[in-house]
Amino acid sequence: MKRREFVRSALFATATLPAFNFVSALARSGPIGDVSAITAEGRDVTLRSAEIRELAERLQGNLLLAGDAGYDEARLLLNPSFDKHPALIAQPTDVSGIQSAVKFAREHNLLLAVKCGGHSHSGQSTCERGMQIDLKNFRGVQLDTAGRKVSVKGGSLLGLVDAETMAQGFVTPLGTVSHTGVGGLTLGGGFGRVARRFGMAIDNLTAMDVVTADGQLLHTSMREHPDLFWGLRGGSGNFGVVSNFEFKLHPMQREVIAGKLTFPFEKMRDVLAMYADYAPAAPDTLYFDPIVVLPPGGAPGVAQLDVCYSGPAQEAEHALAPLRKVGGSVADSIKAMDYVELQRSGDWSDARLLGTYIKGGFISAMPGDLIDALVKGIQGDPRRTTALFFQHCGGACSRVPEDATAFAHRYALANMMTMSGWTHGENATDHIEATRRYWSGLEKFTRGFYVNDMPREATASDINANYRGNYKKLVAVKTKYDPTNLFRLNANIQPRKS
Ligand code: FAD
Question: How many angstroms does the Cα of residue 451 sit away from the middle of ligand 1?
Answer without folding.
Answer: 10
